[in-house]
Each structure stands twice: as structure tokens, then as C-alpha cells.
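Key result, reporting period 2: structure in, sequence out.
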């Protein structure tokens, strides 16, 4: 995610009805010129600060850390599953809370709002029960270590998302008090200055240049909808690389939904009809774009570029291309 891009657009407090709910004293002021706190939002909704635990999620697993904002935007049920089990210290705190204010670590000292959840029933799970939960199986493919069985039980929290400033999901940025390693805090004991409200959600922004795209099989399944819209528009030549076999497959996209259409076909079948790719394990595949062409370029010209890449990368002789 392009963190700096997420921070470019800020609103004044005078914009929109949501701002006016915070009181006449805030009108016309701009971010940085006010002491507005996250706790002011709780107070505005008559929520006791004693009941709110605030968490700044930032997974230690790099692969999961990369996709967590996408999960919050596109697969909220999997994101919620991620936070429904915690470390023992966090369990003890969450068990005392009535509400969980959920954020994702954004950049140093900052966090982006996901939502406010009501804490409900608590259910202990053993190792076998934990790994029967479909969401945890999916997260394991995204690099999540999950419950290792290092203790007899792990607590599962029933968390229900509330309509608390839901329009600000992915947009409300707060400053996180130091030290950052203290990633869960009681609202009553801390101050969380509001740093910005973004015009667009930071969870679905920041698509890299086409030449920098490199997605695993599981990342491709959950890319933000804004990314999918762009890939629908792009036609060109792509590479599917089997990291285990260290071989590549070159293909071209110029038909229905262009690159997204072709890659979605691979997601559905696992091989897209290619005989050599049938032998590859989906978890080992990476998707990237070798060349983007004009959206109205004739199909035979796109195929010509495809053949040129096959020659240069020797994917017929040493890769996964047969033709």
C-alpha cells in the first residue's frame, strides 16, 4: 500500500453532516489545529471509555501484514476471524472489555480505523477445533501462523461489528501513543489524537504501477475491488512463475475483462487449460505483467508481443509454454 498517498488528502471539520455531529466548536477548524481525540467519538456516541479496548493490528508475518488491509476491505469476515483470537495477555484484556475498537498499523506511530465491535460470548478452542475453522485455514495460506498448540486452549471472541462511524472505515487516521509495541490500550488510560480523515479508503488505494505488480495465488483472490477494475481495463502480456519449479509461463490477455479475466480463469481452474501448469501447485505461483499495451490494440498484435516474450525468456525450451 502506498502509505504516503493515503496521507495526502485531508478534510476540514466543516465538511459534511458527520462533522457537525461533533459540535459547533469544531466547525471550520482543520486537522492539526484541534485536539480532537478518538475518545471524543466514543463520548459523542455515549460509549463509556472504561469499556473500550483499542487495538492496532500489525501482524508479525510479512505476507499477512501485506494483505490485512485488503481483508478488512474485501473479506471482513476473515479479518474479524483474525482478531477473534489473541495472545494470552490480549485475551485477558479483551475479556474485560465491552467494545473492541479495531485499527490497522499504517505507518510509524499511526493507525487506520476498521470498526468498533461489541464483545460477546467467549468460547475456548483446542488446537483441533481452532484449525477446523475455515477462516484460519485460509489465513494459514496467507502466512498466518495461528494457534500453535503451545497452551491447552485459545479463547475465541464473538465480535459483532457496530455502525460506529462506519463511513470512516479505512479513512480515520489516529496517532498511536508510544511505545508502538504496546498494541492494545484501554481508551480511558490513553489519548489517540485524530490525525486525518481521508477522502478515500486507504485499504483499497495504493495500486502499484503495472510493472511492479507481483501477486501470489492467495493475494490475487483478495485484491481490492479498485485493483480488479484496473486489471479489467488492461490488456497485455503476463508471466505466471512457478517459484518451486523455477519455471515461467507467458500468456496474453485481450478478451473479456482482459488481464483480470485471464487471471480469474487460472483461479477458477488452477491451470487455465495449460497442460504444464496442471503440474504446478497453486501456492507456488506468482502473477506479474511483462508488457501493458493499448486497450484497443488488435488481438494478433498482442499475440505477437506474447511470442516475442516467449522467445526472450525461453519459456518454450525451459519453461511452461508448449506452443
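The corresponding designed sequence is given below.
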Amino acid at each position: 500500500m502506498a502509505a504516503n498517498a493515503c496521507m495526502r488528502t485531508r478534510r476540514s471539520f466543516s465538511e459534511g453532516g458527520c462533522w457537525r455531529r461533533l459540535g459547533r466548536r469544531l466547525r471550520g477548524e482543520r486537522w492539526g489545529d484541534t485536539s480532537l481525540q478518538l475518545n471524543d467519538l466514543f463520548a459523542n456516541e455515549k460509549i463509556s471509555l472504561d469499556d473500550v479496548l483499542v487495538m492496532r493490528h500489525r501482524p508479525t508475518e510479512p505476507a499477512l501484514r501485506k494483505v490485512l488491509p485488503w481483508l478488512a476491505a474485501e473479506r471482513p469476515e476473515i479479518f474479524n476471524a483474525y482478531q477473534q483470537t489473541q495472545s494470552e495477555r490480549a485475551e485477558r484484556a479483551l475479556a474485560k472489555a465491552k467494545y473492541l475498537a479495531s485499527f490497522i498499523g499504517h505507518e510509524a506511530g499511526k493507525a487506520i480505523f476498521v470498526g468498533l465491535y461489541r464483545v460477546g460470548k467467549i468460547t475456548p478452542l483446542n488446537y483441533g477445533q481452532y484449525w477446523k475453522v475455515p477462516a484460519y485455514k485460509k489465513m494459514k495460506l496467507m502466512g498466518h501462523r495461528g494457534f500453535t498448540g503451545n497452551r491447552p486452549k485459545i479463547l475465541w471472541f464473538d465480535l459483532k461489528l457496530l455502525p460506529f462511524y462506519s463511513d470512516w472505515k479505512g479513512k480515520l487516521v489516529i496517532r498511536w501513543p508510544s511505545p508502538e509495541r504496546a498494541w492494545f490500550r484501554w481508551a480511558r488510560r490513553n489519548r489517540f489524537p485524530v490525525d486525518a480523515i481521508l477522502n478515500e479508503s486507504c485499504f483499497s488505494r495504493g495500486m502499484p504501477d503495472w510493472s511492479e505488480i507481483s501477486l501470489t495465488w492467495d493475494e490475487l483472490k483478495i485484491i481490492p475491488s479498485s485493483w480488479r477494475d484496473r486489471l479489467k481495463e488492461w490488456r497485455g502480456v503476463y508471466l505466471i512463475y512457478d517459484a518451486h519449479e523455477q519455471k515461467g509461463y507467458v500468456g496474453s490477455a485481450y478478451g473479456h475483462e482482459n488481464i483480470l479475466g485471464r487471471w480469474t480463469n487460472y483461479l477458477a481452474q488452477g491451470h487455465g487449460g495449460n497442460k504444464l501448469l496442471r503440474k504446478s501447485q497453486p501456492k507456488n505461483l506468482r502473477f506479474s505483467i511483462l508488457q501493458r499495451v493499448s486497450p484497443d490494440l488488435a488481438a494478433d498484435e498482442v499475440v505477437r508481443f506474447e511470442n516475442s516474450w516467449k522467445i526472450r525468456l525461453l519459456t518454450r525450451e525451459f519453461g511452461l509454454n508448449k506452443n
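DSSP finds twelve helices and eleven strands in the chain. The first helix runs from residue 3 to 6. This case is discussed further under Risks and Mitigation.
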